[in-house]
Amino acid sequence: QVQLVESGGGLVQPGGSLRLSCAASRSIFGTDAVGWYRQAPGNQREWVATMSSGGSSLYADSVKGRFTISRDNAKNSVFLQMNSLKPEDTAVYYCYVARGTLYYWGQGTQVTVSS
Q1: Are 77 and 97 in contact (CB under 8 A)?
Q2: Lower Cβ count inside 10 Å, N or C end of the chain?
Q3: Phi–psi pair at 20, nearest 5 degrees
Q4: Which neighbouring-strand residues pair with 78?
Q5: What is the pLDDT of residue 73?
Q6: pLDDT for res 55
Q7: Measured CA angle at 58 (ends 82, 85), to 5 deg
């Protein structure tokens, strides 16, 4: 069992930046894939970014070029750097760790982009 806790969300103006962190209660292995989803009110959960065990990353088209995912296995942490934020990025952001066929999720952190 891996418990995940996200932090770093908040209110930011359009064009601003936030860095989300996701701390795991147990070791994140090099074989685990990690990533982020988000869910806006009234919408389904949307995939945002994934980093494979090999370190390659993939992004949704809506965030490509603005968001960067990273991981620090030694610190059992996953990060999402979000730049040039837009109002449509407003959502609850969830991190996950995929270990084989098992997925572990955090409780989410709210990101609100508004002037």
Answers
A1: no
A2: N
A3: -90, 145
A4: 22, 71
A5: 85
A6: 87
A7: 20
Structure token digits, residue 96: 């996950």
Closest-CA residue to 10 (of 96, 98, 76, 109): 109
| 95 close to 106: Cβ distance less than 8 angstroms | yes
Residues 6+ apart with CB under 8 A from 72: 78, 79
Helix (H, G, I), strand (E, B) or coil at 64: coil
Cα dihedral 66, 9, 42, 14, rounded to 10, equals: -50
pLDDT in tens, the chain (115 residues): 789 999 999 999 999 999 999 998 887 777 789 999 999 999 999 999 999 988 899 999 999 999 999 998 888 899 999 999 999 999 999 999 998 889 999 999 999 999 9
Distant-in-sequence, close-in-space partners of 51: CB < 8 Å, separation ≥ 6: 33, 34, 35, 57, 69, 70, 71, 78
